[in-house]
Amino acid sequence: MLEIKDLRARIEDQEILKGVNLTVKPGEVHAIMGPNGSGKSTLASVLAGREEYEVTGGEVWYDGKNLLDMEPDERAREGVFLAFQYPVELPGVSMSNFLKQAVNAVREHRGEAPLSAVEFLKLMKEKAALVHLDPSLKRRAVNEGFSGGEKKRNEIFQMAMLEPKLAILDETDSGLDIDALRIVADGVNQMRSPERAFLVITHYQRLLDYIVPDIVHVLVDGRIVKSGGKDLALKLEDLGYDWVKEQADAETLA
Amino acid sequence: MQTTTERIERPEDRFLAAFEVHAGHALNGNGPRMQALRREALTHFARLGFPERKAEAWKYTNIGRKLAHPYALGAPAPALTRDDLAPYAIPGLDAARAALVNGRFEPGLSSLDGLPEGVVVTGLAEAAGAHPELFERHFAHYADYRGEVFTALNTAFTRDGLFVYVPANTVVERPIHALSLLDTDADLFLQPRLLVVVERGAQVRLIESRHARTGTKTFTNGVTEIFVGPNAHVDLFTLQDEGDAAAQVASRYAYQEADSYLATSTITLSGDLVRNTQNYLPDAENCETHLRGLFLGRGTMHVDNHTLVDHAKPHCYSNELFKGILADRATGVFNGKVFVRPDAQQTNAYQENKTVLLSEAARMYAKPELEIYADDVKCSHGATTGRLDAEAMFYLRTRGLTDGQARRMLLLAFARDVIDEIAVEPLRAHLDRLIERRLP
Fold first, then answer.
1. CB-based contact B400 A73, cutoff 8 Å
2. Half-sphere exposure (Cβ direction) of A18: Cα atoms closer than 13 Å
3. Structural domain boundaries enclosing B212
4. How close does chain A come to B279, measured CA to CA in Å?
5. Which of A127, B142, B158, B392 is the 20 to 30 A CA-CA neighbour of A46?
6. Structural domains of chain B, count
7. Is residue B4 scored above 80 in pLDDT?
8. B414 and B267 in a common domain
9. Do the chains contact at B399 and A76, CB–CB below 8 Å?
10. pLDDT band for position A253 (50/70/90)?
C-alpha cells in the first residue's frame, strides 16, 4: 500500500530525512519511534504534503501512484489521513460544515453521492460516539476552545468520518492522560481492518500498550535504524535510544 | 502645429455654476427657510472646496481623480417596471419596500402598504412639502454641512431621497427595504439624501441596498441623517453593490438620545471607489451603538471607511467591528476615531479592524484613533492585516478540500461575525449567498 524508498527531505537548509525506507501493507499497524528531532513529524508532514518541506530525493508510492506528485487534498481524497500533532483551531468554521464538505469531497472522489443532511447527522453521531465526543460539538467551531484531549479525540473522530486507507497519527498520544489515551486508542482499534493501514508516530512506548503494532521502527537522525516486533518498543523503553544508535553505528562499521 | 487652449476649471466651479440653473428644481426650493439653508450650504461648499491630496482625511483616497470627470448633474427618470426591480429583491424577505431610481423616490415601484399608523415612508421632496414642521426640525440638523464639503454640496443640491418617520412608541415589525437603483445612459453625478427620524420608544429595522443596471460612470454623493429618540431602537443594514464603475461618497450622521440603541452594518460588495464617512453622536446617557462593516475588494476597487464615535455623555457603550477581504490590486482604508469627552465617564468603547489580503498587490491602510479625555472608561482598539493562515489552509486540504474550497471556507468564517449579527434572517441568508459568490 505504501512504499517509501530512500526518501530525503529538508526544511530551509536543514536536511532532516536522510534516506527513509519503509513498506506498509494493508491491514498493518506500523509504529515509528525515535528521539526528538529524529524526523518523525517531518516524515508525517512529507507524506501529507506540507509545502514547507522540500523532497530532495527518493520516492513514495501509494496504491501504485506517485504520492509526491499529488496535492495535499488529492492525497486526502485518495485515502491518506493525517492526525495532526497540533490540530488547528478554525474560528467561524462549524464542525458540521467542515466535516460535511470534507466527507462529500472524499465521497465524490470515490464516485459516491453526497450524503443527505439526515444521513450525515446520523454518521456524525455514530462516529462521535466512537471517541466519546458530545454530538453537540457539531455546532462548535473546529477545535476552538477544545481541550487538548478533545482536540486529539477530534482528530480520531475526523479519521472515522473520512474512513481513510492509510492513517498517519502524528504523536496523537502526547499530552493525553490515561483515560483520554484509552479513548483514542479504542477509537483507532475499532477502525483497524484488513484494508486499512496505520502509521503511528509516537515518542512514548505507552501508546503501544493500547494500539498494538505489527512492526516497530526506530527513526534516528533521518533514517530508520532498526525495525522489529512490538517487543522492540519495550526494549527501547528500558535501554533508551542510545542503545539503538550504538547498535546501528556498530553495524555500519562492520 | 495646432494648439487648443481650454479654460482649466475646477470641479467646484461646475457645481457653483449649476446651482443657479438647478435652484428652481431643488428640494422644497420654494420654502424660504430651505432656500436660505441651500444657499448657506453652497457658501460653505465654495469656501471648503474639494479635498486636496494632502488633506489628512483623504490621504489614501484620491477623490480628486473621480471628481474631475465631467458628470451630468441632472438625470431623467427612466420608466421602469416592478419587473426591472425584481432581480434586486431579497428572497424570502417580508418587508415594506421604498424604491429609488437615480436617487428619486418612485411611489409606483414601492410597496408601502401595511405600515403602522403614523409611520411615514416617502420621498424626501414629498416629505418636505407634506410634513414641513417635522422635516425642518431634523433636516440638516445632524449633518455637518458647515464643515464637510461633500455634505455641504449635498445639502445645496439634494432634490430627493427618502424620508422615514416612526412616531413615538411605534414598533415597525416588518423591515423597511429602501432599494436604490442606478439606471442611466449618461455619466451621472447624484446627490440623494436619506432622513430617518425614530421618536421616543419606537423601533424599526431598515435595509438599504444600492444597485446599478448601468455600466456608465456614476458618482453618488449621498448623505444620511438618523435621529434616534430616547429609548428608541434602530437597526440599519446597508448593502453597497453598485458595480465596477460607480464611485460614491456616503456620509452618515447619527444622533442618539438617552437609552437608545443604534446598530449599523455596512456591507460593501462592489464599487469603483467607495468612501463611507460615518459619524455617531450618542449625545445622552446610556446609549448603545454598534458599527459593523464588511468589505470585499477585487480588481482596482478602493474602499475607505472613516468612522467617528463621539462619546459626549456618561454610561454609553459602543462597539465597532470592520472586516475586509482584499484581492488583486484592491485597496482598503479604515480610519476609526473614538472620542471620549471629559463628561463621558463610564464609557465602554471597543473597536476592531481586521483585513485579509489575498494578493501581494492588495493594500490596507488602517488607522485607529482613540482620544480619551475622561478617566473612568474602558476602551480598546485593535487592527490586524494579514494573509490567510497557511496552517489552517493545510489542515483543510488534508481533509480533502481543494485550495479554492479551503480558501472560501476560511474567508466565509472570517466574515461570519459581521454576517451573524444581521438580525433579519432572510437578509442574512441572502448576504451569505452573495458573499460566497463574490468572494475574490
1. yes
2. 12
3. 32-284
4. 30
5. A127
6. 2
7. no
8. no
9. yes
10. low
